[in-house]
Amino acid sequence: MTDRAAPTPSAPTPSDPRLPPRTRRRPLIKLLFGDLVSAALTVLAALAIVMLLPALNWALLDAHWHVAAPGDCRHGGACWAFVAAKSRLILFGLYPPSEQWRAMIVIALIVAMILASLSPRLRGGRLIAIWGGAIVAMLVLMGGGVLGLPPVPTSKWGGLPVTLLLAVLSLGLAFPLAVLLALGRRGRLPLARAISVTIIELVRGLPLVGLLFVAAILLPLLLPPDWTVDKLGRTLAALTIFAAAYLAEVLRGGLQGLDGGQQEAAEALGIPYWKTVWHIILPQAIQNVIPPLTNTAIVMVKNTSLVLIVGVFDMLSAARSAATDPAWPAPSTEAYLFVALIYFVICFGISVYSAHLETGVKSRRHG
Amino acid sequence: MSPAIAIRELDKVYGEFHALRGVDLEVSERERVVICGPSGSGKSTLIRCINQLERHDGGAIVVGGVALGDDLRNLDAVRRETGMVFQHFNLFPHLTVLENCALPQILSRGARRATAEEKAQGYLARVRITEQAGKYPGQLSGGQQQRVAIARALCMEPRIMLFDEPTSALDPEMISEVLDVMVDLAEAGMTMVVVTHEMGFARKVADRVVYMEAGRIVETAPPDRFFSAPRDDRTRRFLSKILKGS
């Protein structure tokens, strides 16, 4: 590193006329009120801050963090003590308190799996196998009935584990379906194309709430009585088919962006069709559509909150029922804010993850 | 000995367009055939029919003694015999250079990863591109990418190599590095069918030059006679156009 220490004779000095004049920092007053647009924006921002002050006051200064009795929360201020008192109900719903550690491990497992998926060394088949094992472990932990764990019926499941499980499982199960639907819609077989188009358009044409009603309420009436499928399972099925229709269209976009030469090269090399799909076509199609895939994933995480309509006890339903406790004076805002914060953390996490994936793709495409 | 490739009365139609009209062509073992002709003459279609990237509509194709028809097992057998190099390289952009050469062996032959990578390294050395093995195709120049594509095809150890305008998409200064690799391959005794406008390559390497126009083979001749004494007017006109520059 000697050459760095030696000053090069032609190195321009600060006074060098060839250099553009050094940019001086603009004075603050000019930055804020320099022209009409900045002035207007400054005034608007100041107004917004002033208007938000009472909210900040409510949320922080006047807030009650610890109260002796629920009634102490009455005057002004947010009642965060309520969230602390009800956090168990919001996070775990009606899950038996003595077994709550199981639900906590499930949440920890999901978080750990998501972090593990960040590692670039875990890709493709191995990652999917590990996720499959982890999901089975989670379902066993939640449901019990084996390994000496007392059984907990799904009607008692609730809160964050239900939200996370519904989101992860519906997206995970929807993905292979979506691949089949997207390939079918683009394929040469008329029957496969007709089936794919029908399913996609039918499901996309229905509101999710309608699908949930059909799955939760109509299906048990239509099926013979001894064909009972658990309500949580039926809800999951509705979410899955809904996610599959949307993911299929996103993936179709990714497939359309692919150069036909890829398929031809694989064919000429004698690679069988499904291996071509798995190793050549899908990885590239997915890389093409990371932003809309992320969008669909985020929408589906939030869509799980709609299951409260058919009486599945997810995190939002749990927060709602916590807020109805008459002992506490009107704490629904605090409960919903708490749930909103958790949703935000999850969805923002997905965004960050997808941004990280995209930079990886970009660096490989162009030096 | 039966010929490496035997094509009889080959027909191919796209809707209204008659791409091939009764083409006959035989290629012997270790023979190098260069196919040239104006665009739309059917030369690419012909070469793509040999490994059935295009299905033919009439006539017969026999590759390495295996007749191509509706039987898919025959198709697999023919694709094992033939390697193909494309105009636009068609490397897999999401895989490194080494993986581009190793993965197809694993997927289509069930090769073990270690064996596949070893073989890939060997052929990458043969096309003189060893030091780029860890890079992605998007990080290489066109000439380098095409050499990787040749190595990838060679990794499958085909007995016949098909080249579909391998230098048409390259910048002029990169053409020779690809042609050099192809000349090496020819000197090693590979059976080659090459669609190209590189007449220098044809002169140097080809055993026979085939001139096509409007879906038909107009003339077939050894290169010295093809270039010095073409028999057909259409060939003469084509040659005068294409050789004017050089």
Descriptive report:
The complex is a heterodimer of chains A (367) and B (246). With 367 residues, chain A is mostly helical. Chain A is built from 15 helices and no strands. Chain A has helices spanning 2-5, 28-33, 36-61, 80-92, 100-117, 124-143, 160-186, 190-205, 208-222, 231-256, 260-268, 273-288, 290-303, 315-323, 332-365. Chain A is globular and about 75 Å long. The model of chain A is unreliable at 1-14 (pLDDT under 50). Chain B has a single domain, classed as P-loop containing nucleotide triphosphate hydrolases (Rossmann fold, 3-Layer(aba) Sandwich). Chain B has helices spanning 43-50, 72-81, 97-109, 113-126, 142-155, 172-187, 199-205, 223-228, 233-243; strands at residues 5-14, 17-27, 32-36, 58-63, 66-68, 82-85, 160-164, 191-195, 208-213, 216-221. In chain B, the strands form two sheets. A six-stranded mixed β-sheet of chain B has the order 6-7-8-3-9-10, with helices on both faces. Chain B has a four-stranded antiparallel β-sheet with strand order 2-1-4-5, covered by helices on one side. In chain B, strand 7 (160-164), helix 6 and strand 8 form a beta-alpha-beta unit. The longest helix of chain B has 16 residues, at 172-187. The mean pLDDT of chain B is 91. At the A-B interface, helix 11 and helix 12 of A face helix 2, strand 6 and helix 3 of B.
Ordered list of secondary-structure elements with their pairings:
The complex is a heterodimer of chains A (367) and B (246).
Chain A: H1 2-5, H2 28-33, H3 36-61, H4 80-92, H5 100-117, H6 124-143, H7 160-186, H8 190-205, H9 208-222, H10 231-256, H11 260-268, H12 273-288, H13 290-303, H14 315-323, H15 332-365
Helix pairs in contact in A: 4-14, 4-15, 5-6, 5-7, 7-8, 7-10, 7-13, 8-10, 9-10, 10-12, 10-13, 11-12, 13-15, 14-15
Chain B: E1 5-14, E2 17-27, E3 32-36, H1 43-50, E4 58-63, E5 66-68, H2 72-81, E6 82-85, H3 97-109, H4 113-126, H5 142-155, E7 160-164, H6 172-187, E8 191-195, H7 199-205, E9 208-213, E10 216-221, H8 223-228, H9 233-243
Parallel strand pairs in B: 3-8, 3-9, 6-7, 7-8
Antiparallel strand pairs in B: 1-2, 1-4, 4-5, 9-10
Helix pairs in contact in B: 3-4, 3-5, 4-5, 5-6
